[in-house]
Design goal:
Blueprint: H1 2-22, H2 33-44, E1 68-70, E2 76-80, E3 87-89, E4 102-104, E5 109-112, E6 126-128, E7 133-137, E8 150-152, E9 157-159, E10 169-171, H3 176-179, E11 189-190, H4 198-201, H5 205-241, E12 263-264, H6 267-273, E13 282-286, E14 289-295, E15 301-307, H7 315-328, E16 339-342, E17 347-352, H8 359-362, E18 366-367, E19 370-371, H9 375-395, E20 399-401, E21 410-412, E22 418-420, E23 427-429, E24 436-437, H10 449-454, E25 456-457, H11 459-475, H12 482-485, H13 492-501, H14 519-532, H15 543-550, H16 555-563, H17 567-574, H18 580-586
């Protein structure tokens, strides 16, 4: 009887606690405190590109706003404002977003001091404030955040002594008043070690023994109490959902894999969400697995990638690469990894569902008789993809090479915003390395010549793939299907080069556009594509330069300089073929033209 009353009391307490948590962001009048905080942030900032345009004070749910990602309970978990030329001081209101896990304000024009309020973000995991104009001391309050994985304060004008910030990685390079005039005097700091205070070490042996007894008793009682709480919670959960409680005995968790705040799903949960991996729910197939549309218990629609042959060569490496890489790469133009499942026999990855599929799947679609991807959307896709790749190449640490940039791997959200997906072929690079050598993977028609010839990939490999993507956006054809679909001889790149040389640009434009495109922008996009696809990788621009050129800055000068390059001499010295199709035919690393990966 006494046991029943205890369980009932605990159950009621838990229910009240959960009700309190669910209403945590609402005031008594139903106003969302996070909306108020976010609007205060918006009003304090100078936003030249209007990236915060859809932040609306009349909204009760900020989860649909751009630059924001929410937890399952509706609280804001990710705020990404990087690379938008935003200026002003960092608003203190950010400290009100109590559930925030990732905050990225890097590569903007923020000035003034880092507000003390950031120390109130107890759930914060990643904090990037690098490449701004921040001044003053780093606030002591940051030392109160215990779960930090990365804090990047590099390339500002911070001063004073640095507090003891408990982050696994702390970057402060490029702050002359802290590091000295030479940035290399200040290296990346590893996670600080925690030592017991001298006062504790000075305690007498007798005192230690008494404390040990008390601690042992407290630990035992605490463990028992936690166990009771867990059991009661599971009983409540069973009652709430009227489902059998079970444990997946085949789940094998690797404690060495640090996965931050990613959600771990059970195999049974994802199997049910995909209707037992029903073929009707297949969204795409790739070299490493099949992607399914799935509906979770709470009604959330997601995409589940089920890796095949994970224990075969490359399979488990594929899983580790995707999980660790994508969880660290957070950008509005990159596909966000929501969670994963790892059992003895299965490896699955969970991503947000992209309502408009991939660029490749939408290139030939029509809406009310008009192409789904008109010229304006194609230009936005090019810009969004470029921004995502700039982040991977130049703002991630370690930097990331995608190695399979193509229309099938560029996904489209509900607003047709480009999201770079499929990091299964990504390679992490330390900044000391310029390239990696691996077995060639990718899609014929998109693979850079040097990668075909030597197996060496670099950021310039992705630049080549981006150039081919631009041609896919212009022509409406996938590079792999070009010869069959367009009744053309050779490959797309050779065909475009010939038309450009002859001044017949209009002939390469997708006929579905029916002439509705900007002629000047067409010329510029073709020039950028040809700069990206030069045979010599050292002649190709960086992705950050490509982004600037697409935005109208520096293209004319770069194009003129490229025309002065003595390409024939390079070819004769390096023994390179004249056409891209010749690389494909001569490569000993490619057996047949086939897709080795696919869209999510």
């Amino acid at each position: 009887m006494e046991h029943t009353r205890l369980v009932s009391w605990l159950l009621c307490s838990l229910l009240l606690l959960m009700m309190e948590i669910s209403a945590a962001v609402l005031s008594p009048s139903g106003i969302n405190y996070e909306v108020l905080a976010l609007m205060a942030i918006k009003n304090e900032l100078d936003d030249p590109h209007n990236v915060l345009e859809n932040w609306d004070s009349n909204s009760v749910d900020p989860c649909s706003w751009r630059m924001i990602t929410c937890n399952l309970d509706g609280s804001v978990s990710v705020l990404l404002l990087q690379n938008n030329a935003i200026s002003g001081q960092i608003p203190t209101a950010i400290g009100s977003l109590e559930k925030l896990q990732t905050l990225d304000l890097s590569n903007n024009d923020f000035s003034g001091e880092i507000p003390n309020s950031l120390g109130g973000l107890k759930n914060l995991n990643y904090l990037r404030l690098n490449n701004n104009s921040l001044t003053g001391p780093c606030p002591q309050s940051l030392s109160n955040i215990e779960g930090l994985t990365l804090v990047d304060l590099s390339y500002n004008n911070l001063s004073g002594s640095l507090p003891r910030i408990p982050a696994r990685t702390l970057k402060i390079v490029g702050n002359p008043l802290i590091c000295g005039p030479k940035s290399n005097n200040c290296s990346t700091l590893p996670e600080p070690l925690s030592f017991p205070p001298d006062a504790l070490r000075a305690q007498s042996d007798g005192s230690k023994k008494s404390h040990h007894v008390a601690i042992a008793f407290s630990a035992s009682f605490g463990a028992a109490f936690v166990f009771v709480i867990i059991i009661v919670f599971l009983v409540w959960w069973r009652y709430r959902h009227n489902k059998q409680i079970f444990f997946d005995v085949n789940e094998q968790y690797d404690p060495e894999v640090r996965l931050g705040h990613l959600k771990r799903y059970t195999f049974k949960e994802l199997r049910a969400a995909t209707d037992h991996f029903n073929s009707k729910n297949i969204l795409g197939r790739g070299g490493f697995g099949i992607v399914y549309k799935a509906s979770l218990n709470d009604g959330t629609i997601v995409a589940v990638k089920r890796l095949k042959d994970y224990n075969a060569a490359g399979g488990e490496i594929q899983f580790q690469t995707e999980v660790e890489t994508i969880s660290l790469a957070v950008h509005r133009n990159l596909l966000r990894l929501c969670g994963f499942c790892s059992t003895q026999n299965e490896r699955l990855l969970v991503y947000p569902y992209m309502a408009n599929g991939s660029v490749a799947s939408r290139l030939k679609d029509h809406i009310h008789g008009q192409p789904a991807l008109d010229w304006t959307r194609r230009k936005r896709i090019a810009l969004g993809t470029a921004r995502g790749l700039v982040y991977l190449h130049e703002q991630c640490d370690p930097k990331i090479i995608h190695r399979d940039v193509k229309a099938a791997n560029i996904l489209l959200d509900e607003d047709f915003e480009a999201v770079v997906g499929d990091f299964g072929l990504a390679k992490l690079l330390d900044h000391r390395d310029s390239h990696v050598t691996t077995a060639v993977r990718g899609t014929v028609g998109h693979i850079a010549p040097e990668y075909l010839s030597t197996g060496q990939s670099s950021e310039k490999t992705d630049v080549f793939g981006f150039g081919i993507l631009l041609l896919e956006l212009i022509t409406g054809h996938k590079a792999l299907d070009f010869g069959r679909a367009a009744n053309q001889k050779g490959v797309m790149l050779d065909w475009v080069k010939k038309l450009h040389q002859d001044g017949r640009l209009n002939q390469m434009v997708d006929k579905d556009l029916k002439g509705n495109f900007d002629r000047v922008e067409l010329e510029e996009m073709v020039q950028v594509a040809l700069l990206c696809t030069q045979f010599n990788p050292s002649h190709r621009p960086k992705m950050s330069d490509i982004l600037k050129m697409l935005e109208g800055d520096g293209l004319a000068e770069r194009w003129e300089a490229s025309q002065r390059i003595e390409t024939p001499r390079f070819r004769s010295c390096e023994s390179h073929p004249q056409r891209y199709s010749d690389f494909i035919e001569e490569s000993s690393l490619i057996v047949e033209a086939m897709e080795l990966s696919g869209p999510r």
